[in-house]
Amino acid sequence: QVQLVESGGGLVQAGGSLRLSCAASGRTFSTDAMGWFRQAPGKKREFVATISSSGNTRNYVDSVKGRFTISRDNAKNSVYLQMNSLKPEDTAVYYCAAWLNSLGSYTYWGQGTQVTVSS
After folding, report:
1. Is residue 95 within 8 Å of residue 105, measured between CB atoms?
2. Which residues contact 24 (CB under 8 A, 6 or more apart)?
3. Mapping DSSP to helix (H, G, I), strand (E, B) and coil, where does residue 38 land?
4. I want to staple 8 with a disulfide (CB 3.0 to 4.6 A). Which of 17, 20, 58, 86 is the partner?
């Protein structure tokens, strides 16, 4: 059974930092793209960042560019999201995702981790 388990969320003041981790099990994702998404209360889930299988290609939503960094460790079957200079509008449940399929959507999802940024 494939599982993606996020960790590292929490409550932080504006301007602070958090590092999210996502550990995968049940399948190796070393040849697949992985990504992070988030969903704020009352809003649709939105794309945050994605990273290619090699880690050489990374893309971000404009609102986090320069503040967030996605990385991965294929030996640990894990993906990370370093979040700096956090803003209250970054408050959301953050989800990791893996295996970008032929339809352009991710196949596997984690259960999410809450990030709350206080002003």
Report:
1. no
2. 2, 3, 4, 5, 77, 78, 79, 98, 108
3. strand
4. 20
For residue 66, the tally of other CB atoms under 10 A from its CB is: 9
The predicted model gives 89-109 an average pLDDT of: 93
| CA–CA dist 82, 73 (Å, integer) | 14
pLDDT of residue 28: 94
Average pLDDT (1-5) is: 95
pLDDT of residue 100: 84
Cα→Cα distances 109→32, 44, 46, Å: 13, 16, 14
Residue whose entry in the numeric block shows the structure tokens 């079957």? 77
Q: At 71, list the tokens.
A: 């990385």
As a residue count, the chain comes to 119
Label residue 49 exposed, middle or buried (CB < 10 Å: 0-12, 13-18, 19+): buried
pLDDT tens digits, 68-93: 999 999 999 999 999 999 999 999 99
pLDDT of residue 101: 86
